[in-house]
Structures are given as structure tokens and as C-alpha cells.
From TrEMBL:
Protein name: Glutamate decarboxylase
Entry EC no(s): 4.1.1.15
Cofactor names: pyridoxal 5'-phosphate
Gene Ontology MF, one: glutamate decarboxylase activity
Family as reported in the entry's similarity comment: Belongs to the group II decarboxylase family.
Alphabetical keyword list: Decarboxylase, Lyase, Pyridoxal phosphate
GO cellular component: cytosol
UniProt-listed InterPro entries: Glutamate_decarboxylase, PyrdxlP-dep_de-COase, PyrdxlP-dep_Trfase, PyrdxlP-dep_Trfase_major
Length: 467
């Protein structure tokens, strides 16, 4: 605990924050309850010091190689953030310019993702890509319901087809909105959902297929074009027409700049909607997602609410109501600041670091790469079979944490749960110099573990990371 405060427990069993007297002022309490409202006020300097010191106990965000979420922006962005901290994104009448900038952003994304007519597309910002996925899934479900009712068919049993490596937000979608998830298991032969065997999962109640552009477990792209081709064959055989939602939480802000010839977006006719995280490879601080539909017909009108906006109507479609507008302005700032050339330079730099790291880790005899980071700048590795009985990747993760590095170890999804991997996410701000430092600490940790004369205990080990 810092010099400012310590936690004490008193006879009544209640925890209190006890201040170092040097930080308190005459007449101020030197003990504050930890889980109850204090009876009296504190000076702002005192309250600030308490929170400031508590915050120091968190990990260093720049050394967190587990998260996809942005941990760095430049000083001008930080200034904008503070200047816009009071803007409420839902209040489009009070903040019409922020609302207009939101529209500019998703229109820019529609163009980036090759919408047939960006002016005729529709989109929205969200609090993150999880909400964006929920909205994309809801639109698929409602379109399916409308089509079934028009044909006089029942609408009680919708399902959606997903990879077993899907992010947990899709499990939430299925639970919250009563859609049956149909998981296509990944395997050593099919490391991602690639269209293989898709006909076993699709039927007349399928509202859509989710294709992941950057699987959370490993960073690999699912081949959207191959999935669409499989759905074409299914339609030819059965007449069932199934759309695709691309979960591009990470990859939708990587592929346009690093793999511009890869067809994964609205160039594929079956792609009805795409989401991304502004706060991942969109390079903005946490709290921003985007979802765009290929045209206005892809988003059923009865899902849209219309609010008064400068004497007219503005459509809104969201699960949240009040939410920050600052991140939307930060996204627009970055679009203007970087442009296509700048985004390419930033994303190429992160991928260069990822490829360097994966190539060096592949040289360590203990490890075998699962992928190398050539899709999004994310890669995973596993312990080579038979290498050692004395330690595992959970032990390695703990050793690295001692140096401040957060590198998760976790089991792969269903049908591959016996395989444990570690994964690194390279983000903007993670330089080659930091990569050199990490590799030195990794090699040192492996050397320490290799020198053990007996096995470390493995009881109670669990993943420190959740997808």
C-alpha cells in the first residue's frame, strides 16, 4: 500500500482507509470507510490523492499484451477527450455537431468497407463492438422474422451459426435475445470457421452466419469469401438464403490497410453488416464501437427510433441510451489525422513488431506457433509436445507477470480444450524496443523454468483471461 493510505480493520469488522497524516488537513478525518459513504466531506486534494494511489496498484496498461483495447493516444487526442468529456452521444439535439460527426464516421467506414452506395448505407456508433454485434444480430433476427411471417411460416426457433472460437458477446446475444447458437467446432485441420461442413448447421431457421475477421483466441481471419461460397452452394441445393454478419472487431480496421485485396467486406454480396471496435485497432481509448449495414434495406425500419434533430428526424438504433460522445470525436480526429496512409503506417508497424516477435518465439525450442500474426497483429503459441513435465504455460504466464508483462495462458475452445496456448496482441505504442525487452524477459523466464529439477504444482491453475 502507498505512503498515502493503508487499509485497517476495526473491532466493528468494517474496513477503513487510513490516511497518512502528511496528506490530511487540519480538521479532516484521517480514516474513511471503504464500503460506506463517509459522513463528512473531504478536500478535493485528499480525495484525489486516495484515488490516485489506489490506481497505482493496477498493472501498467502498456505492458498488457492480453488486451486488444487501445492504451495510448497522442496529446492532442487527450486534450480533445477532456474538452468533450461532458458530451452525451444520445442527446443529438443538444450536441448536433457531434451527431453529424458520428454520421461522417460511419459513412467513412461504409466507404472503406466497399458498401455499394455509402450514401445509401446506414450505421451507428456503439459503446463497443459487443453492443455492435448485438445490433447486427438483432437486425438479422428481425429480417428473418419478417421474411418468415410474409411466407406464413413460424418464427419461434431462430438459430445463428458461429465458430466455437466466437467471442463471448455472441453467446450473450443468443442468451439475451433467444436465438439458438449452432457452434461449428474448430480443429487442427480447420483452425477457423471456413465453410467446411456448413450444410450440417444451416436450415430454414438460420438467421445468419457470423464470420470473424480476427478470432479472439488467435487473431486468425475466417475466410468470408469461402463461407459465402459455401452458403451459395447451400442455397443452390435447398433454396435457403442466409446472410453473413462480419465480426470485424479487430480485423475490419486492419484488413483495409494491410490486406486491401482480401475480399471480406461488402464486396461480397452476402455480407449484410459489419462491426468493428473503434477502441481496438480503430486506435481510440475504450468505449467505442461501430456497426454498418450494406444499405438501408438490411436494417429493418421497425428497429429504428427517430428523435427530433434540428427540426427534423434522426434515426437511432442502440441498446444503450446515455453514453459518452467524446470517443466519437476522437475517432473522427484520427480519421482526419492519419488518413489511409497514416492508418497503413500505424497498422504496418504493429504487424512488423508482431511478425518479429513470433519469428523470435518460434526459435525458442520450448514453443510451437499456432499462427504468426500475419492477419491481425496477434499470434499464439503452445508448449511443444513432450518438451517438459516440470512447467506449463500457466507457470510461464506467472513468471512474466513478475516483470509486469500480462501474457495470458488459456485453453482453446470446445474440441481443442486439451491444447493450452499463450497469445500476444501487438497494439499501437508497443515498439520494437519494448519487444526486445519482452523477449529478454521471456527467454530469462524460460531458462529459469527449464532449470527446475522437479515439477511445479499445477493445482488450481486457471486462465487469467476470458474471451
Amino acid at each position: 500500500m502507498s505512503n498515502t493510505q493503508r487499509i485497517t480493520r476495526h473491532e466493528d469488522g468494517r474496513d477503513r482507509v487510513e490516511l497518512n497524516p502528511i496528506f490530511s488537513r487540519p480538521g479532516e478525518a484521517t480514516m474513511l470507510p471503504k464500503f460506506l459513504f463517509p459522513e463528512e466531506e473531504s478536500l478535493q486534494e485528499t480525495a484525489y490523492q486516495i484515488v490516485h494511489d489506489e490506481m497505482m496498484l493496477d498493472g501498467n496498461a502498456r505492458l498488457n499484451l492480453a488486451t486488444f483495447v487501445g492504451t495510448w493516444m497522442d496529446d492532442h487526442a487527450s486534450r480533445l477527450y477532456l474538452e468533450a468529456a461532458d458530451k452525451n452521444m444520445i442527446d443529438k439535439d443538444e450536441y448536433p455537431q457531434t451527431a453529424a460527426i458520428e454520421t461522417r464516421c460511419w459513412r467513412m467506414l461504409a466507404d472503406l468497407w466497399h458498401a455499394p452506395d455509402p450514401a445509401n448505407s446506414i450505421g451507428t456508433s456503439t459503446i463497443g463492438s459487443s453492443e455492435a454485434c448485438m445490433l447486427g444480430g438483432l437486425a438479422l433476427k428481425r429480417r428473418w422474422q419478417h421474411a418468415r411471417r410474409s411466407a406464413g411460416e413460424p418464427t419461434e426457433k431462430p438459430n445463428i451459426v458461429l465458430s466455437s472460437a466466437v467471442q463471448v458477446c455472441w453467446e450473450k446475444f443468443c442468451n439475451y435475445f433467444e436465438v439458438e447458437p449452432r457452434y461449428v467446432p474448430i480443429s487442427e485441420e480447420h483452425k477457423v470457421l471456413d465453410g467446411h461442413g456448413l450444410e450440417k448447421y444451416v436450415d430454414e431457421n438460420t438467421i445468419g452466419v457470423v464470420a470473424i475477421l480476427g478470432v479472439t483466441y488467435t487473431g486468425m481471419y475466417e475466410p468470408v469469401a469461402a463461407i459465402a461460397a459455401a452458403l451459395d452452394r447451400i442455397q443452390e441445393a435447398t433454396g435457403i438464403d442466409v446472410p453473413i454478419h462480419v465480426d470485424g472487431a479487430s480485423g475490419a480496421m486492419i484488413a483495409p490497410f494491410l490486406q486491401p485485396d482480401l475480399e471480406w467486406d461488402f464486396r461480397i454480396e452476402r455480407v449484410a453488416s459489419i462491426n468493428t471496435s473503434g477502441h481496438k485497432y480503430g486506435l481510440v481509448y475504450p468505449g467505442l464501437g461501430w456497426v454498418v449495414w450494406r444499405d438501408i434495406t438490411a436494417l429493418p425500419d421497425d428497429l429504428i427510433f427517430r428523435v427530433s434533430y434540428l427540426g427534423g428526424n434522426m434515426p437511432t438504433f442502440a441498446l444503450n441510451f446515455s453514453r459518452p460522445g467524446a470517443q466519437v470525436l476522437l475517432q473522427y480526429y484520427l480519421f482526419l489525422r492519419l488518413g489511409r496512409t497514416g492508418f497503413h503506417a500505424v497498422q504496418q508497424s504493429t504487424q512488423d513488431v508482431a511478425l518479429y516477435l513470433s519469428s523470435e518465439i518460434a526459435k525458442i525450442p520450448a514453443f510451437e506457433l499456432w499462427n504468426d500474426g500475419s492477419d491481425i497483429p496477434v499470434f499464439a503459441w503452445r508448449l511443444r509436445d513432450g518438451y517438459t513435465q516440470n512447467w506449463n504455460l500457466y507457470h510461464l504466464s506467472e513468471r512474466l507477470r513478475m516483470k509486469g508483462w500480462l501474457v495470458p495462458a488459456y485453453p482453446m475452445p470446445a474440441d481443442l480444450v486439451d491444447i493450452t496456448v499463450q497469445r500476444i496482441v501487438v497494439r499501437n505504442g508497443f515498439s520494437h524496443d519494448l519487444a526486445f525487452s519482452f523477449l529478454a524477459d521471456l527467454r530469462e523466464a524460460v531458462a529459469y523454468l527449464d532449470a527446475l529439477e522437479g515439477p511445479l504444482p499445477a493445482e488450481g491453475q486457471h486462465s487469467g483471461f476470458h474471451h
